[in-house]
Amino acid sequence: MGQLKGRWLWLALGLLVVLSPLGLLAEGAAWGEWAPEELEGMLGFVPAGLHSLSGIWQAPLPDYGLGGLPPSVGYVLSAIVGVGCVLGVTWLLGRWLSHGPSDG
Question: What is the phi/psi pair of residue 52, to 5°?
Answer without folding.
Answer: -75, -25
